[in-house]
Amino acid sequence: MKIAIIGTAYPYRGGIATYNERLATEFQGQGHEVTIFTFTKQYPDFLFPGKTQYSDEEGPKDIKIVRCINSINPINWITVGNRIKKSKPDLVIISFWLPLMGPCFGQILRRIKKNSHSIVLSILHNVIPHEARFGDRLFTNYFAKAVDGFVAMSQNVLDDINIFDSTHPKILSPHPIYDNFGKVMPREKALRELGLDTEYSYILFFGLIRKYKGLDLLIKAFAHKQFRNSKIKLIIAGEYYSDKDEYTNLIKKYSLENEVIQVEQFIPNSEVQYYFNACDLVVQPYKTATQSGVTQIAYHFNKPMIVTNVGGLEKMCPNEKVGYVVSTNPDDIADSIFRFFNDTDKPKMINNIIEEKRKYSWKILTQNMQLLYEKILEN
Length: 379
Prior knowledge:
The longest helix has 17 residues, at 362-378. This protein has helices at residues 15-29, 74-87, 102-112, 136-144, 155-164, 187-194, 215-222, 244-253, 269-278, 293-300, 313-316, 330-343, 346-356, 362-378, and strands at 2-6, 33-41, 64-70, 91-96, 119-124, 149-152, 170-172, 201-206, 232-237, 260-263, 281-284, 305-308, 323-326. 39% of the residues lie in helices and 18% in strands. It is globular and about 65 Å long. Helix 4 (136-144) links the parallel strand 5 (119-124) and strand 6 (149-152).
């Protein structure tokens, strides 16, 4: 097939850019012709909470990426839509994660579909955003009406899209493993790369820091007296997208300055491997969630996890098999961390992870998408 993927990609950074590039690679490996159409302007600067939207690493050399979309210019949306329409892709895949993109994406898709040939599938990372804004429902509805079929990666996202569309076909296909961040390496080697003491064990909180991700809950959990003098440290690796003072004040309040290692930056793709190989346990204390790319990175590096019982996280992390599923109560999080380091059969849990992650391949996702595409064609 001739496939067009619309959404963020290099030179933009982040999980969805990585997702789109990995998806393109998978389809290309199956013999399809793939082009990613990405942004010249993704977000207005005043709406972007981070330091930069751009990657400072080299881009993928084996993927065709065309920068042409201006998310805030309606004339551009028509121009880009007409351009893709004329190229007549068999399949258009568009990632949706933010209602703000609804008008841009919705208009582009409406132009493309005038060729009476292209089928449009949307991969839904989020439908109802974690942080609500005015116009969310209106923008999402406009986008959804231009799509022929939907791929949800968790049941709650599937339920959310049914609010906006009750007629078009939908499938549930879990988030695949992020297997493009490097290889499993000896823990000691990763610790040396990060300059960390091999005498300690490490808990990892990874990714952009937003309020809904519950870092405050993890800091409160880690402040429990059972962790004092325990030779366990907490690594916080990620850029702050919410008020940093809220978290640093908690660290000071509980006198954790020497127990917490803060890496206050967006972690480049080439360095992700060191943090996951170095840690003993990945903790996701989220207050709300759909699915999580962090979980799928942890799976790739065979790392046990503690996740909260929100959204699709508990389905992705079978309790007591690949880690522990707990409530958002800091006491429960603390107890599960203590249990992991003191009572868990870690080699057995890692073997469970190796077995469990087989169900999260990119081949399964692309097969499911092709089945959905064929179903739409038949109708």
